[in-house]
Prior knowledge:
By secondary structure, the chain is mainly alpha-helical. The chain is 75% helix and 0% strand. The protein contains 16 helices and no strands.
Amino acid sequence: MGTLRLGFGNAMGLFSKLGSIATFRRPSRSGSATVPTATPAATANLAPPKQKTLAELEQEMAVEYVKTRPIKLASPSRRKNPFKKLFWLGVWVGIPVGVLWFINLPYPPIRRPIARNAPILLVPSYASMDSSYRQAISLTEQASQLIDNATAFEDIDLGAEKVEQAQANLDRLPLWIWDELPGRRYWWYDWRLSYTGFYSARSEVGRLQAKVFQERNAQTALFEAEQTLDRAKQNYQQANQAADKQAAITEWRVALNQLEQISSQTLAGSIAQQRSNPYQQEFQNTVGAAAGNEQTETLIRAARQFAWQAAQAGQNPPHSVEKWRQIEGLWQEAIQRLDAIPADNLAGYAEAQQLLATYRASQSQIRVRLQAEQEAVLNFQEAQYKIQALLASIPTNPDRVNRNAMISQLQGIIHQLERVPNGTTVYLESQALLLSAKNKLNQL
């Protein structure tokens, strides 16, 4: 207001001076200036200026003052950096978090002093281990129910996933935790871990893993057997030659045997047992008597093969005891194949009975040769023992020789050697000893 008043006084002085100044004419082109004079007529026509009010003058002076006053530029304000605050906030928060993370590392040299002096700082570790333990127990129970009481292969797969998750939670539990904190309970934390429960869970997880392995193997065996079965049935239906049909029948039988060999303790084994009877019935209805005849022919061919091997082995006697036993075993194998032929197959059974008569007779002859060889070897060995005893009993002085005793011993040796029959492996050697003994007896 003071500024406005000062401006108003100056303005009044200015207006008073302006009233006394005369108007000048525009200078001429020659450069001289003439002072204009006021004529009476012009003076008479000029009206007196209108007087302005004080409010109008103050308003005009305020506008002029605003236009003429210097503009002060505002100094730029300092802007605060938000990242600086975030940095210091991270520092103040990160330091205690880092320290807490360090003292909760799962290493005994770090954990033990903290557990003794400030166990409350280990609450994150306790909570993590307790959560892992609870999840491991829960997952183990779920897996046990799914695997032990499985009704479909999907249950086995889901149970296997639960077992893997339980194993992962058990792996998060350190084995040395009970040495560090054996059975402690704090007023601020209820310790739930159990040494017995931990190792029981580990044992149960191991058992379930082994059972999942067995179940999957049995499932694979069931899948392969059923694939072989379907392929054999298709091949049998498409076969035009007898050899192709026989190959399909053999493959069909192999598939049925594979089904029976799957363990009944598994889910796949129980399914295989349920499907085995329908598969067997389908095999009998499809193949019928052809399969029975083919089986009979197969047994007869096998018996003939064993008999041929036995006959070949028995040529060019004599043979040792072991060789005769081997030949007898081959005849026995041939006889067993023929005995397996059922009586309802009339043609095959009749042929089998004819072969059985021949094979059993051959087996009886082999048994006789075997017994003869055994007795010959035994008599020859006893004769050798007696000869050694006789040689050991002869005195160095010929005058002291007891001829009667020597004659008696020689007669026993000769009798023993004469019991070695012809056609045995020791016959030639026994004859040489027999000749030598008789010569010695004649000398005495």
